[in-house]
């Protein structure tokens, strides 16, 4: 049976995860075990539940208890379901709830890079992409356009930050992902070598005079490709570009030199991944 609890005390400890803890604090909530994250909207929460994530509590507008969130509540057992009117929730959280429903969920331990590379033919690699909106959008493209996994360097924004999850429309729960281990200064870009040792040809998406067009037939002919995308402002470090098997560019018109990294990812994943299968 659902445990519906109308909010009468803003300082109730159960509301800390929604109102008083930062995303960084949620990440470390159960250290040394995995922490928490917040999923937003019934559809996104459903996808997390289908992927096996464990709910801790729900926060929602009253009208959703018997409305859009009814099925979600039914799947979550007897966890607390905190509820109030829209204006009360906005005052509590400090922001309007886009779809009126939030769910605190337990993180899971991440798989190893090696396990994700086994059996994969196309993977996306994000190096130091710090904007959670871009991370979420890239995950959505990766899931939709036939990438088998997403690997992130430690400098990337967390894919389970609330905004990244929301922008991804929950596809972060539908595609395998993990982080590379943090590297010492004496081993720059050793993760590129990890990919090569796993049998992948590495593809640096970069503006470089040596770059091939993304539709070059040599790329489509490779059995295993790792498509590497860099940060929003500076792109990939030169050391990463120089260490890759291929340097690739997307042809542009009207004097435009580049796309936003999320838009570029969709083009790259279509050409190098989904275009072979769909």
Structural account:
This protein has 278 residues and is α/β, with parallel strands linked by helices. It contains twelve helices and twelve strands. A seven-stranded parallel sheet has the order 8-7-6-11-9-12-10. Strands 1-4-3-5-2 form a five-stranded mixed sheet. α8 links the parallel β7 and β8. α7 packs parallel to α12. The longest helix has 13 residues. The chain is elongated. It starts with a strand and ends in a 6-residue tail after the last helix.
- What structural class do you assign from the helix and strand content? alpha/beta
Q: Widest sheet: strand order?
A: 8-7-6-11-9-12-10
**Average residue pLDDT:** 90
Tell me the series of helices and strands, N- to C-terminal: EHHEHEHEHEHEHEHEHEEHEHEH
Distance between the termini: 43 Å
**Secondary structure tally, helices:** 12
> Helix coverage percent of residues?
25-40%
- Round the Cα radius of gyration to an integer and report it: 21 Å
Low-pLDDT segments, ≥5 res: none
Oligomer: single chain
Summary of the model, kept short:
With 278 residues, the chain is of the alpha/beta class. Helices cover 31% and strands 20% of the residues. The strands form two sheets. It has a seven-stranded parallel beta sheet. A five-stranded mixed beta sheet has the order 1-4-3-5-2.
